[in-house]
């Protein structure tokens, strides 16, 4: 079981499992998530890695940022990695977490990371005045402005995100995570998407990269992710049939298997024994 932890400076909360001397494998959740959304991954990958999942700034017990943008979140990620002593980590970013990973890679696309997994994310969101962008923001923030709460919205939001026959325990955890997101953090993270565009930087990602999609994902459609993968020099593309946007919770075994196969082909790991 992953253990809730706090960095020594008190700035970040996170969950972790595995030998601290093992290669670091760091998971970044999406806007409606939390560190605990990765528990099925942390417990599984903790056998071979130091598996860690952060609470993004403003989530869990992590301190909020004064200004929330993808760039400031990437700065926070760097601070977090230093705080936990994660050198040359493997990064797994879901949704906005994948955007943060892309932004972080821009600083040093070769030396910084051993490999990355970009799960159900996008290289760009678009401008604030776009019709699709306006509709996306209104669908998520409009109900809050009209008096709904994260707790009241969580069941419907999660139901809209998932695909076919999702794991029941995973869905309960997804609803719990969504309901627990502070409204201010949800608003700030959603608005941080506006203007994000790292399409031009995809060609500069030099590390092995798994681009993982779900065939029923409407937020990060599989065809878009396949195109994204085509621009990354060392990309492996995997599409999970029937999965929606929360694949690590909907289909934890399939998600873990895809990541394990990718890592086995690209990362040499010596199993840690007691």
Summarize the structure.
With 274 residues, this protein is α/β, with parallel strands linked by helices.
Describe this structure in words.
The chain has 274 residues and is of the alpha/beta class. It has 10 helices and 8 strands. It has an 8-stranded mixed β-sheet with strand order 1-2-4-3-5-6-7-8, with helices on both faces. Helix 2 (70-83) crosses helix 3. The longest helix has 15 residues, at 131-145. The chain is globular and about 50 Å long. 47% of the residues are buried. The model is unreliable at 270-274 (pLDDT under 50).
Give the termini distance in whole angstroms.
17 Å
Give the helix proportion (percent range): 40-55%
In total, the number of domains comes to 1
Most strands sheet: 8 strands, mixed
- Strand proportion, as a percent range, falls in 5-15%
CATH topology, which one? Rossmann fold
Order of adjacent strands in the largest pleated sheet:
1-2-4-3-5-6-7-8
- The CATH architecture would be 3-Layer(aba) Sandwich
Helix-strand topology string: EEEHEHEHEHHHHEHEHH
Number of strands: 8
Fold blueprint:
Layout: E1 3-6, E2 13-17, E3 24-28, H1 39-45, E4 50-54, H2 70-83, E5 90-94, H3 96-107, E6 115-119, H4 131-145, H5 150-161, H6 168-180, H7 183-192, E7 209-214, H8 222-230, E8 235-240, H9 247-250, H10 252-266
Parallel strand pairs: 3-4, 3-5, 5-6, 6-7, 7-8
Antiparallel strand pairs: 1-2, 2-4
Helix pairs in contact: 2-3, 4-7, 5-6
């Amino acid at each position: 079981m992953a253990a809730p932890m706090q960095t020594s400076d008190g700035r970040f909360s996170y969950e972790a499992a595995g030998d601290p001397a093992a290669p670091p494998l760091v998971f970044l959740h999406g806007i409606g998530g939390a560190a605990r959304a990765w528990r099925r991954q942390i417990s599984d990958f903790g056998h071979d890695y130091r598996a860690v999942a952060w609470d993004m700034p403003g989530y869990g017990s992590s301190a909020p940022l004064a200004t929330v943008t993808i760039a400031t979140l990437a700065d926070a990620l760097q601070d977090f990695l230093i705080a936990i002593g994660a050198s040359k980590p493997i990064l797994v970013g879901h949704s906005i977490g994948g955007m943060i990973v892309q932004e972080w890679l821009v600083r040093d696309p070769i030396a910084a990371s051993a490999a990355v997994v970009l799960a159900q994310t996008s290289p760009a969101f678009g401008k604030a005045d776009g019709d699709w962008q306006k509709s996306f923001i209104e669908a998520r923030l409009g109900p809050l402005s009209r008096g709904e709460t994260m707790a009241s919205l969580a069941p419907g939001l999660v139901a809209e995100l998932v695909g076919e026959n999702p794991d029941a325990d995973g869905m309960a955890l997804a609803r719990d995570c969504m309901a627990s997101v502070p409204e201010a953090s949800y608003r700030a993270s959603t608005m941080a998407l506006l203007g994000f565009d790292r399409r031009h930087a995809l060609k500069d990602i030099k590390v092995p990269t798994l681009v993982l999609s779900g065939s029923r994902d409407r937020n990060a459609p599989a065809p878009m992710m396949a195109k994204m993968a085509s621009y990354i020099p060392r990309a492996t593309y995997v599409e999970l049939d029937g999965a929606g946007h929360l694949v690590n919770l909907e289909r934890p075994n399939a998600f873990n298997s895809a990541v394990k196969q990718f890592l086995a082909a690209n990362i040499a790991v010596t199993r840690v024994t007691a």
